[in-house]
Every structure is written in C-alpha cells, then in structure tokens.
Design a protein that fits this description.
Elements lengths: L2 H25 L3 H6 L6 H10 L4 H14 L3 H13 L1
C-alpha cells in the first residue's frame, strides 16, 4: 500500500471515531436520548440503521423463519418494512 492509502484509511477511522464520540455525548443526556436519539435523528440514519439490521445472521434467520411460516407472501412483508423504513 502507498502513503495515500494509509492516509485514506486514517481519515476514515478518524471520522468514524469522531462520530462515535459525538453520538456518545448526545446519547448520554437522558434515557430518551439514549433509546430514541432525542427524536432528532435524520430519517436517512434511521432507514440505514433499520435496513442493515437484517444483514447479520439473526436477520437471515428472521427472513428464513418468516418465509417458512408464511410462505412466499412473507416477501411482501419484508419489502413493506423496507419501504416503511425509507419513508
């Protein structure tokens, strides 16, 4: 890797760590701020948070179990949540 690669990685980590400290400060105000983001989070952050929740193994297990219980109509249920999170 070259110097520019290390610079890009360093800037990325600095931004991610900085955002982590900023959100930690915001969430430490009270219990409502911790669980609900103080009702002030941007819709895009909420949509991304909800959509990436299905990318791990528990999300995969959830999708497969709903598919087993409801059949193919469960895909409409899954897509509906995706549209609702983005709305």
């Amino acid at each position: 890797m070259t110097g520019i690669d290390y610079t890009i990685i360093g800037v990325y980590f600095a931004i991610v760590i900085g955002l982590g400290f900023w959100y930690q400060k915001q969430a430490s105000r009270d219990i409502k701020s911790y669980f609900l983001g103080g009702n002030s989070m941007h819709w895009l952050a909420l949509a991304m948070s909800g959509s990436v929740a299905t990318f791990d193994i528990t999300g995969t297990m959830w999708i497969v179990s709903i598919l087993f219980v409801l059949g193919m109509k469960s895909m409409m249920h899954h897509w509906m949540w995706g549209f609702m999170m983005g709305a």
